[in-house]
Amino acid sequence: MILFELNARLHNQRLDALADQHLARLAALGFDWVWLMGIWTMGPEGVVMSRKYAPDFEGSPYAIAAYEVDPILGGEQALRVFVARAHALGIKVMADFVPNHLALDSPLIDADPAMVIHSNPAIRREYATDYYDHPKGRLAHGKDPYFEGWNDTVQLDYAYPPLRAHQVAQLQRIARLVDGVRCDMAMLVLREHVKKNWFPGVDQASFDAAYPREFWDEAVTTVRADRPDFVFMAEVYWDNEPILQSLGFDYTYNKKLYDLLAHHAPAAETAAQLEHWPQAYLERSVHFLENHDEERAARRFGKRSRPSAMLSYAIPGAVFVHQGQMEGFAEKLPVQRRIPLQHETPNAALMAFYERLLGLVRRPIFRDAELMILGAESDVVLALRRRGEERVLIGADPGWHRHPKSPAIEIPLVWLGIAPGTAVRCIDLWTGARVELMPSEIELRFAEGAVASWAENHAFLIELR
């Protein structure tokens, strides 16, 4: 999957207009998925509440009142037009699903108040800021246990079987409109976290009777009975990625790799972590340098975004690019804001970099080939992609260390699956230029400064022939 996150709310355009503006370019760049972030209807209370923080805020798209396409975006018909035009270009479409909570004024509360969490100090420790008064009772805000409740949301009760059935039905409906869902904070509805966060004072047997099976197992199985090709992608943290993959998720966020790259981890540490992960896990991981929750790559990574992107996108897994990332935009937009405060000029050189990189990583060897981590040398993470007799050597210095020229590298030929004494020809995929080797019967050796593209990217992709 090569995925582009498109903020559907920007500039208050209809989805059919967004299709005309973006899809042809995205298809030309090689994207085969578009995630339409923020298409569902919000409740009016959430919009009013958001304006207490900034007068131009228009509510959070993660405080969903109903899974109906926002009328500002043209409603369901405009979404169908967008999807049809995307499919005609070979692009599939993803939408949000927010399992943990809904808008605090969602009609679901009146329809069945038992579907949301009510105050109950007898079974949990409660903080006043995590609850609000509603005509149906004192209700809990949606919550990550490490932060205060999201005050524009209400927490759903996954220990109530009708709620789980309702959520599965919502997913089935979404699956009739689009090709996949990005599931917000997907780990929050795992049984372990529901018990710990909301029912700590309930005995395990009673909880198990109310919530006997993981929601995601039930949801994925049910949705795929009608739509076998429907894709589930999880935003997930706290080492719960393998659990969600085992429950049927096609892809899970790889926040650990992001953190290593974003926080200047030594090359050896990054290489060791990549080697630790099984390839099957990496293939179902989503690799990114920014998204709507993270700081802009232009600010957090700066010039380091080039080697970080080349490493992240050349290993197995999903390529994920956020709107504005390729242009080098620096303003991080709160999800409540529809119109940027700044007018930013796109960085033409960075756009050309991403166009070139996306063109390269579309090749089969980067999409489905074996990965071997070779370790780290001279601050450079080294890896090999191998597909039959095809081989590409990956090298990246995510810390952008002070190498005025490409560093000298020596790699035993047997590590590359090449017999000693075999003649090897190296081509810099970025420039098409030949990389001159130093004589050796048993090692791949190139001298300092041998890779012409290094100065520009502090990374290389070298085809071995």
How would you describe this protein?
This protein is α/β, with parallel strands linked by helices and 465 residues long. The protein has helices spanning 15-29, 44-50, 75-88, 107-111, 161-175, 191-198, 204-210, 215-226, 241-246, 255-262, 267-276, 279-283, 297-300, 305-314, 348-361, 364-368, 454-457; strands spanning 2-7, 33-37, 40-42, 64-69, 92-97, 101-103, 131-134, 137-140, 153-155, 180-183, 231-234, 251-253, 285-287, 318-322, 370-377, 380-387, 390-396, 409-412, 426-428, 434-435, 443-446, 459-464. The strands form six sheets. The chain has an eight-stranded parallel β-barrel with strand order 1-2-5-10-11-12-13-14. Strands 15-16-17-22-19-20 form a six-stranded antiparallel sheet. The radius of gyration is 24 Å and the shape is globular.
Features:
single chain, 465 residues, alpha/beta, TIM Barrel, Immunoglobulin-like, 2 domains, eight-stranded parallel barrel, six-stranded antiparallel sheet, 22 strands, 22% strand, globular
